[in-house]
Amino acid sequence: MICASYNGPGRKLILAFDIGTTFSGISYSILDPGQVPEIKGVTRFPADELGNGSSKIPTVIYYDRHGKVRAVGAEALRESVQDIAMSEGWVKAEWFKLHLRPSPEESMHVGSELPPLPLNKSCIEVFADFLTYLFQCALRFIKDAHANGENLWSSVQKDIHFVLSHPNGWEGFQQSQMRKAAVLAGLISDTPDEHARITFVTEGEASLHFAIQNGLSAQDIKARTVMLCMGLPLTLLQEGDGVIIVDAGGGTIDVSTYGKSANKVAFEEIAAPECHFHGSIFVTVHARLFLSEHLAESPFIDDLDDIVRCFDSTTKLRFRSEYEPEYIKFGSTKENDPDLGIRFGQLKLAGSDICTFFQPSVECIVNAILEQRKSAKGRISHVALVGGFAASNWLSSEVQRSLEPFHLNIFRPDTRVYVYVIDHDNSFSYLTNSNKAVSDGAVSFHLNSIVRSRISKVAYGIHCDPYYDGTNTEHLKRSSSSYQGHSGAYQIPKGFSNILPAKTAVSDKTEIRRGYIRDSQTKYTELHEGILCYRGELPQPEWLDVDADMYKPVCDITADISRMKQSPLPRIDGTGGKYYSVNYDVILLFGLTELQAQVAWEEDGVEKRYARSLDIISRTSGF
Questions:
Q1: Element (H, E) at 400
Q2: Rounded to an integer, what distance in angstroms lies between the CA atom of residue 16 and that of residue 446?
Q3: What is the CATH topology of the domain spanning 12-201?
Q4: Enclosing H/E stretch for 347
Q5: Looking at residue 278, what is its pLDDT?
Q6: Per CATH, is 456-618 categorized as 2.60.34?
């Protein structure tokens, strides 16, 4: 919801890029002092001959043999481009977003199905090329769609803030890679001040902002009147009620849960967000496996790529019933093989078979909703299905049917389907204009974030060797590994000091702080600390050698403390030796976009801090 006028010093442009696995979108807002901002979408793209106002464009790039970009977006769907690509050996980059996914080793089934990146091209380079394309699309659209567009662009081109959305499961590393891509694309320079011109938001949180922006006003919340969310009426959303946002996209299913905060105006995350690799592309993956077996012993196996492409762009979208057959039109009327169900260039598929292609995604969504409902700190009353995959009637109806016993109010936006026809007498291609929830919501998030607290998905802390405590059972078990430190006291190695426990609700203004002591035989000139996260299931992780694979490095902080006063101290074991000791705090702060890690110490009674943040740790991705 945007209701306040912009009070900045001058005109500014907010650009939000939603790079999806299969489709992408752009939204923007021009901020003029004294004016209430409006959120607009880019609805014209190169090679969009139909001029249908679609706010989505295919996430596809063609490279030639020399690695030069030759066609992007809708242009890559042109028959002429595809013919040239085949004859000149161009390489298509698609689904490249998923190459950036976290923990590839934990999702090998995803990696095995991804199209490879073009030779000698990294994922970041492909991201950068696509960001360049999106930026040029935004520039061209703003110049053409606004009166005095050239002058308008000239007035904002030096003051542009970018908002990049990403799946719930993406964290600091993925954000840093996206920021590097933005630098490579020329959107920003590689300096701290320029880095600050990029904000990140999860797709789940962006979708919530879109819902609020499109029908739920502050007065509606206060009065508890009927909520309109994405054009659909809901029952009363009262204090204590929660809403689950399911963003079903091309690659991922992002699930987030929010409830109204005590002030009834803002929202708070009430369950740890989830991200699952069961988006719409995996329906196509299952279809390919089925069709490759079905056609294995026939000459039509050579047409497998075309048949799968036609299934993806037509049959998958219109599928409605397991009791009715569907058809894939892939060839001319001369193509016939009754034994394979092929007549007049159409392959017949039983509805029950197509159901199996969708089933893993349906089960994933249903299980995720129930898990969120179980773990949420509040009462869940509504589920919003958004994203391009939510346009599937079969998917939404199956989700609703499976959840009927739980009495949840499930709704989705009214999506429309636009058609691009690629007519070389035997094929069609369709593009869906799914709602622009993510890109619009990303702009709304930047202008007026309404989420005041979030749930940490993992635990954050540092490696710390605790002093030996003979009354501690765990210390007694590890007594054989104890060692005498510089101070003369005994310590236990491989400890984990948990600063922020997992599944902890943290407000956007919270500063989490914990003090530590480091000892050395010589004076410290630098203070080095490594931030770790624990991703396992232990409720209270304490030792780095227990469930060791679940501890991951997040960032390193090195601070210059050479000016800090350090006096030699006598060893406590009576040996007469000396040592130096420094006291400092590790601080985790939660701002509007990312988690910031700091170390703090005192110099002459004045606190000094050194921060490491921005491209290191995610905050809106659930920490």
A1: helix 393-403
A2: 9
A3: Nucleotidyltransferase; domain 5 (3.30.420)
A4: strand 346-349
A5: 93
A6: yes
Rounded CA-CA distance 42/142 in Å is: 8
Residue 614 in this model has a pLDDT that exceeds 80: no
- In eight-state DSSP terms, residue 186 is T
Strands 12-19 and 160-166, bridge-based pairing: parallel
Q: What letter does residue 529 receive in the DSSP assignment?
A: E
Tell me how far apart the alpha carbons of residues 58 and 312 are, in angstroms, rounded to a whole number.
Answer: 13
Task: Give the CA radius of gyration of the chain.
Answer: 27
Nearest to 332 by CA among 253, 464, 257, 427: 427
Higher pLDDT, 223 or 492: 492
Q: What percent of the chain has pLDDT over 70?
A: 85
pLDDT digits (tens, 9 = 90+) for 577-595: 999 999 999 998 765 556 7
Range(s) of the chain covered by CATH 2.60.34: 456-618
Residues of the chain with CATH 3.30.420: 12-201
Contact assessment for residue 597 and residue 612, using Cβ atoms and an 8 Å cutoff: yes
- Cβ–Cβ under 8 Å, residues 41 and 214: no
375 Ramachandran zone, left/alpha/beta (phi>0; psi -120 to 50): alpha
Alpha carbons 591 and 320: distance in angstroms, whole number: 44
What distance in Å separates the CA atoms of residue 114 and residue 184, rounded to the nearest whole number? Answer: 24
Tell me if residue 521 falls in helix, strand or coil: coil
In angstroms, the CA 135 to CA 507 distance is: 33
pLDDT band per the 50, 70, 90 thresholds, residue 456: confident
Q: How far apart (Å, rounded) are the C-alpha atoms in residues 307 and 288?
A: 9
**Alpha carbons 507 and 1: distance in angstroms, whole number:** 20
Counting other chains too, the contacts that 316-320 makes at CB distance below 8 Å and 24 or more residues apart are 316/280, 316/283, 316/284, 316/287, 316/357, 316/392, 317/391, 317/392, 317/417, 317/430, 317/432, 319/351, 319/354, 319/358, 319/392, 319/393, 319/394, 320/393, 320/394, 320/397
The terminus-to-terminus CA distance of the chain in angstroms comes to 25
**CA 133, CA 216: separation in Å to the nearest integer?**
34
